[in-house]
UniProtKB/TrEMBL annotation:
Gene3D superfamilies: Ribonuclease Inhibitor. It comes from Anopheles atroparvus (European mosquito). It comes from the Eukaryota. GO terms for biological process: positive regulation of protein ubiquitination. This is F-box domain-containing protein. Residues 37-83 form the F-box domain.
Length: 521
């Protein structure tokens, strides 16, 4: 049975998984109880509405099948403030444009704040209806990533004008100027802009690169941007960074992760113009040491820096880290030039006293002695520590530094490479539970075959679960130990905490000042 059909949103509106009569009966038993004394029917509508607010829209559709009262509550526009219509990313599937237009008018209305639209639903009539019927719409995602051809926007005269956040997923081959030209006059209030490229879809053989969106025109239409995220776009280079910095004087955060044409040639101008720039993320770019060293880091406001996966030299790293006045976040993993001498120079000539997050993933040229010295001195202030991807960093180092990490919220440890020795995970879990009570996210990347645990491991897992009450994510490689930990947490009704590395990865990005603004997709 079609879930949306069941609540009369409109005929053939959204296709969902089948909802069998057996599931229907079990839902009635679950929510209504077996006797009138325990019936949920006695709860007022506003309480049920609050309960529904924790459900996904697909689950709300299913609850609407229970009874007429619940169907009426499911109609409430308060439940439809944030809507995704992209089924490939757990959104709802709308069957036709007519159905969506009906939804916008009848169900979404003034309550709608956020919407995600796939390419087939991005038309001038839909956008006109959103601008007319949804005056409080402030967040929008437009997914053109699978497009082979755009709709005709020549007649488009209206677009949501109160947007503060916009995410555009670009196509490799579709030029966006025809669409963008129509919306430039409506987006000057934007504060957060995401342009998402096709980095993750790229194949190894080189293909012709098209500049599918005109960044130089876009920057003129968006002078109020605070956060700019250009992710994995193969045509983005330093000239585009220069364009944004010349017009966006309120810029606080710039992310160009995996834009491999960025070399840093305009970094000096960026730091000189953007006096409020606090977060600069350049993971996987082609930064050149000479350009990076030319920037006036000693006069900048940058506090959060990601240079992971670049080819910066040891000299450059020392130069940057000893000149930045207040650095609170550093991600510098996968850099051959990052070694003990960099850490030593930073401790002696820099200012790591403000550091709260350190990510040195796969930094094979740093010794465990060098890391131990640094963590011993500054570990008490750290909220995130990522020392993964290094075979020489084992449980012995972690057991040594764990009592120091009293304020830690995020920990990532281990490597997927098979080790010659074993990891005694029971002792590790016991130490974490005893000293890291503020822990929220933990990932162990060691191969399951390297994890050694005893029949009494439940005690160590219990200690971790009981002491670390804020723990919301524990990621392990699939294997016997994963199953043991998962079963332990499920018995305590914490079913969503334990996850596998195939579906989840822990990142230090959670402590970034603009983390919520940087979330996309």
């Amino acid at each position: 049975m079609d879930a949306w059909n069941a609540i009369d949103f409109s005929s053939s509106l959204v296709h969902s998984d089948s909802f069998s009569s057996g599931s229907f009966r079990r839902s009635r038993m679950l929510f209504f109880g077996s006797s009138s004394g325990t019936s949920i029917e006695k709860l007022p509508d506003k309480v049920i509405l609050h309960i529904f607010s924790y459900l996904s829209h697909l689950e709300i559709c299913r609850m609407a099948m229970i009874c007429r009262r619940w169907r009426t509550i499911a109609y409430n526009t308060q439940l439809w403030k944030n809507v995704s219509l992209r089924p490939e990313v757990s959104g709802l599937h709308v069957g036709s444009l007519e159905s969506l237009l009906s939804l916008i008018s009848v169900r979404f209305g003034p309550s709608l704040r956020y919407i995600e639209l796939p390419i087939e639903l991005i038309t001038h009539t839909v956008l006109h209806e959103l601008s007319s019927k949804c005056p409080n719409l402030t967040h929008m995602l437009l997914d053109f990533s699978t497009a082979m051809q755009l709709h005709d926007f020549s007649e488009m005269q209206a677009f949501p004008a109160k947007l503060r956040y916009m995410c555009i997923c670009l196509s490799e081959v579709i030029f966006m100027e025809g669409f963008m030209r129509k919306i430039y006059n409506f987006i000057n209030g934007l504060e957060v802009l995401h342009l998402i490229g096709t980095y993750e879809k790229c194949e190894e053989e080189e293909e012709e690169i098209y500049e599918v969106i005109n960044v130089h025109k876009l920057k003129s239409a968006t002078p109020n941007l605070r956060v700019i995220n250009l992710y994995g776009i193969n045509f983005i280079d330093d000239s585009h960074i220069d364009a944004f910095s010349s017009n966006c004087i309120q810029l606080e955060c710039l992310a160009v992760n995996f834009c491999n044409k960025v070399t840093g040639s305009t970094l000096k101008a960026l730091l000189a113009r953007s006096k409020q720039l606090k977060c600069l993320l350049m993971n996987g770019t082609s930064l050149k040491s000479e350009y990076v060293m030319q920037a006036e880091w000693d006069k900048c406001s940058v506090q959060e820096l990601d240079i992971s996966g670049t080819d910066l030299s040891t000299e450059c790293l020392i130069d940057v880290l000893t000149r930045i006045p207040t650095l609170r976040f550093l991600s510098a993993g996968q850099i051959n030039g990052f070694n003990d001498s960099v850490l030593k120079a930073w401790m002696e000539g820099g200012n790591p006293k403000t550091l709260i997050a350190l990510d040195l993933d796969s930094s094979d040229n740093i010794s465990d002695e060098g890391l131990a010295r640094f963590i011993t001195r500054y570990g008490a202030q750290l909220q995130a520590c990522v020392l993964s991807g290094m075979t020489h960093i084992t449980d012995q180092l972690w057991m040594t530094i764990m009592p120091i990490l009293t304020n830690i919220r995020i920990i990532v440890m281990g490597t997927t490479e098979r080790l010659s020795g074993n990891i005694h995970v029971d002792q590790l879990m016991d130490t974490i539970g005893s000293h890291c009570t503020k822990l929220e996210r933990l990932e162990l990347r060691w191969d399951p075959e390297n994890l050694r645990f005893s029949d009494k491991s439940q005690k160590a897992i219990d200690l971790l679960r009981v002491k670390c009450l804020k723990l919301r994510c524990l990621v392990l490689n699939d294997g016997r130990y994963y199953e043991t930990v998962k079963a332990n947490f499920e018995r305590a009704d914490r079913t969503t905490v334990v996850r596998t590395t195939t579906s989840c990865r822990v990142s230090a990005y959670h402590v970034l000042s603009n983390y919520n603004d940087l979330i996309f997709n």
